[in-house]
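If it is no trouble, can you show me the amino acids of a protein and the C-alpha coordinates describing how it folds?
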Amino acid sequence: PISTYAAIPHDGPQWTVFRLGFTLVGLQMLTLSWSRWYVTRSSNPLLSGLSAVVMWLSVPFLLTMAYIRDGTSSWHLYGAIIAFVLFAVAYALDAWADNNTERFPLLFGARVGFVVAFLASFFAWFAGCGTWLEYAAVVLAFVSPLTWSLQACSRRDAGSANNRTLSLGAGESAEVEMRRAAEA
Protein backbone atom coordinates (compact mmCIF):
# COMPACT_ATOMS: atom_id res chain seq x y z
CA PRO A 1 0.00 0.00 0.00
CA ILE A 2 0.95 3.61 -0.52
CA SER A 3 1.52 4.32 3.19
CA THR A 4 3.79 1.30 3.60
CA TYR A 5 6.11 2.49 0.83
CA ALA A 6 6.42 5.83 2.58
CA ALA A 7 7.60 4.20 5.82
CA ILE A 8 10.36 1.96 4.42
CA PRO A 9 13.12 2.55 5.31
CA HIS A 10 12.26 4.21 8.57
CA ASP A 11 12.81 7.99 8.31
CA GLY A 12 14.00 7.72 4.71
CA PRO A 13 13.61 10.61 2.26
CA GLN A 14 10.39 9.13 0.89
CA TRP A 15 8.71 9.73 4.27
CA THR A 16 9.44 13.44 3.94
CA VAL A 17 8.17 13.44 0.36
CA PHE A 18 5.02 11.58 1.46
CA ARG A 19 4.25 14.11 4.20
CA LEU A 20 5.08 17.10 2.00
CA GLY A 21 3.00 15.69 -0.85
CA PHE A 22 -0.07 15.16 1.32
CA THR A 23 0.38 18.58 2.90
CA LEU A 24 0.36 20.14 -0.57
CA VAL A 25 -2.66 18.02 -1.56
CA GLY A 26 -4.42 19.26 1.59
CA LEU A 27 -3.67 22.87 0.68
CA GLN A 28 -4.85 22.19 -2.84
CA MET A 29 -8.12 20.71 -1.55
CA LEU A 30 -8.68 23.76 0.66
CA THR A 31 -8.03 26.10 -2.26
CA LEU A 32 -10.15 24.11 -4.70
CA SER A 33 -13.09 23.80 -2.32
CA TRP A 34 -13.00 27.51 -1.47
CA SER A 35 -12.84 28.39 -5.17
CA ARG A 36 -15.64 25.98 -5.96
CA TRP A 37 -17.79 27.45 -3.20
CA TYR A 38 -17.08 30.96 -4.51
CA VAL A 39 -18.29 29.99 -7.99
CA THR A 40 -21.36 27.98 -6.94
CA ARG A 41 -22.53 29.85 -3.83
CA SER A 42 -25.23 31.80 -5.63
CA SER A 43 -26.86 28.79 -7.33
CA ASN A 44 -27.39 26.79 -4.14
CA PRO A 45 -25.89 28.49 -1.08
CA LEU A 46 -26.75 25.78 1.45
CA LEU A 47 -25.41 22.76 -0.43
CA SER A 48 -22.36 24.51 -1.87
CA GLY A 49 -21.52 25.88 1.59
CA LEU A 50 -21.94 22.46 3.20
CA SER A 51 -19.77 20.90 0.51
CA ALA A 52 -16.97 23.37 1.18
CA VAL A 53 -17.18 22.94 4.96
CA VAL A 54 -17.11 19.15 4.68
CA MET A 55 -14.11 19.33 2.36
CA TRP A 56 -12.31 21.66 4.78
CA LEU A 57 -13.08 19.21 7.59
CA SER A 58 -11.53 16.36 5.58
CA VAL A 59 -8.12 18.00 5.33
CA PRO A 60 -7.05 17.51 8.99
CA PHE A 61 -7.86 13.80 8.63
CA LEU A 62 -5.86 13.64 5.40
CA LEU A 63 -2.93 15.17 7.26
CA THR A 64 -3.47 12.79 10.20
CA MET A 65 -3.05 9.92 7.77
CA ALA A 66 0.02 11.54 6.24
CA TYR A 67 1.86 12.35 9.47
CA ILE A 68 1.10 9.22 11.49
CA ARG A 69 2.94 6.21 10.13
CA ASP A 70 1.03 3.17 9.00
CA GLY A 71 1.33 0.51 11.68
CA THR A 72 2.29 2.86 14.53
CA SER A 73 -1.22 4.01 15.42
CA SER A 74 -4.73 3.14 14.36
CA TRP A 75 -5.25 6.87 13.76
CA HIS A 76 -3.41 6.51 10.46
CA LEU A 77 -6.18 4.21 9.23
CA TYR A 78 -8.95 6.22 10.90
CA GLY A 79 -7.62 9.36 9.26
CA ALA A 80 -7.72 7.71 5.84
CA ILE A 81 -11.23 6.35 6.30
CA ILE A 82 -12.64 9.61 7.64
CA ALA A 83 -10.89 11.71 4.96
CA PHE A 84 -12.20 9.54 2.13
CA VAL A 85 -15.74 9.42 3.49
CA LEU A 86 -15.71 13.21 3.93
CA PHE A 87 -14.36 13.62 0.37
CA ALA A 88 -17.27 11.52 -0.87
CA VAL A 89 -19.82 13.53 1.10
CA ALA A 90 -18.31 16.84 -0.11
CA TYR A 91 -18.26 15.73 -3.75
CA ALA A 92 -21.82 14.39 -3.56
CA LEU A 93 -23.09 17.61 -1.96
CA ASP A 94 -21.31 19.62 -4.62
CA ALA A 95 -22.81 17.51 -7.41
CA TRP A 96 -26.30 18.08 -6.03
CA ALA A 97 -25.62 21.78 -5.40
CA ASP A 98 -24.70 22.41 -9.01
CA ASN A 99 -26.94 19.83 -10.68
CA ASN A 100 -27.80 21.15 -14.12
CA THR A 101 -29.37 18.09 -15.70
CA GLU A 102 -31.18 20.15 -18.33
CA ARG A 103 -27.97 21.29 -20.04
CA PHE A 104 -25.65 18.45 -19.05
CA PRO A 105 -27.63 15.34 -18.07
CA LEU A 106 -24.62 13.01 -18.13
CA LEU A 107 -22.31 15.24 -16.08
CA PHE A 108 -24.29 14.83 -12.86
CA GLY A 109 -24.28 11.05 -13.31
CA ALA A 110 -20.56 11.05 -14.04
CA ARG A 111 -19.81 13.09 -10.93
CA VAL A 112 -21.89 10.81 -8.72
CA GLY A 113 -20.25 7.85 -10.50
CA PHE A 114 -16.82 9.16 -9.44
CA VAL A 115 -17.99 9.23 -5.82
CA VAL A 116 -19.39 5.71 -5.96
CA ALA A 117 -16.32 4.36 -7.81
CA PHE A 118 -13.75 5.81 -5.41
CA LEU A 119 -15.69 4.77 -2.31
CA ALA A 120 -16.21 1.26 -3.73
CA SER A 121 -12.50 1.04 -4.59
CA PHE A 122 -11.45 2.29 -1.18
CA PHE A 123 -13.66 -0.07 0.82
CA ALA A 124 -12.95 -3.03 -1.49
CA TRP A 125 -9.23 -2.45 -0.94
CA PHE A 126 -9.88 -2.14 2.78
CA ALA A 127 -11.72 -5.48 2.69
CA GLY A 128 -8.65 -7.09 1.12
CA CYS A 129 -9.80 -7.35 -2.49
CA GLY A 130 -6.53 -6.09 -3.97
CA THR A 131 -3.86 -3.48 -3.38
CA TRP A 132 -4.44 -1.92 -6.80
CA LEU A 133 -7.84 -0.74 -5.55
CA GLU A 134 -6.13 1.61 -3.10
CA TYR A 135 -4.41 3.30 -6.03
CA ALA A 136 -7.68 3.45 -7.96
CA ALA A 137 -9.42 5.05 -4.97
CA VAL A 138 -6.72 7.68 -4.54
CA VAL A 139 -6.66 8.54 -8.25
CA LEU A 140 -10.45 8.77 -8.44
CA ALA A 141 -10.68 10.87 -5.27
CA PHE A 142 -8.16 13.43 -6.45
CA VAL A 143 -9.21 13.47 -10.11
CA SER A 144 -12.88 14.01 -9.28
CA PRO A 145 -12.51 17.82 -8.97
CA LEU A 146 -11.45 17.93 -12.63
CA THR A 147 -15.13 17.49 -13.49
CA TRP A 148 -15.67 20.95 -12.02
CA SER A 149 -13.85 22.45 -15.00
CA LEU A 150 -16.53 21.06 -17.31
CA GLN A 151 -19.17 22.96 -15.39
CA ALA A 152 -17.01 26.09 -15.25
CA CYS A 153 -16.71 25.98 -19.04
CA SER A 154 -20.45 25.51 -19.36
CA ARG A 155 -21.06 28.51 -17.09
CA ARG A 156 -18.63 30.62 -19.09
CA ASP A 157 -20.23 29.59 -22.40
CA ALA A 158 -23.70 30.28 -21.04
CA GLY A 159 -22.51 33.62 -19.69
CA SER A 160 -20.95 34.72 -22.97
CA ALA A 161 -24.09 33.64 -24.87
CA ASN A 162 -26.20 35.74 -22.50
CA ASN A 163 -23.83 38.69 -22.74
CA ARG A 164 -24.30 38.88 -26.52
CA THR A 165 -27.95 39.77 -26.09
CA LEU A 166 -27.50 42.05 -23.10
CA SER A 167 -28.44 45.63 -23.77
CA LEU A 168 -25.86 48.24 -22.88
CA GLY A 169 -28.41 51.01 -22.63
CA ALA A 170 -27.72 52.59 -26.02
CA GLY A 171 -29.36 49.78 -27.96
CA GLU A 172 -26.07 48.02 -28.65
CA SER A 173 -25.26 44.48 -27.65
CA ALA A 174 -22.16 43.47 -25.73
CA GLU A 175 -20.89 41.75 -28.87
CA VAL A 176 -20.95 45.05 -30.79
CA GLU A 177 -19.27 46.80 -27.87
CA MET A 178 -16.54 44.15 -27.69
CA ARG A 179 -15.96 44.38 -31.47
CA ARG A 180 -15.67 48.16 -31.22
CA ALA A 181 -13.17 47.83 -28.33
CA ALA A 182 -11.09 45.30 -30.33
CA GLU A 183 -10.96 47.63 -33.34
CA ALA A 184 -9.77 50.58 -31.25
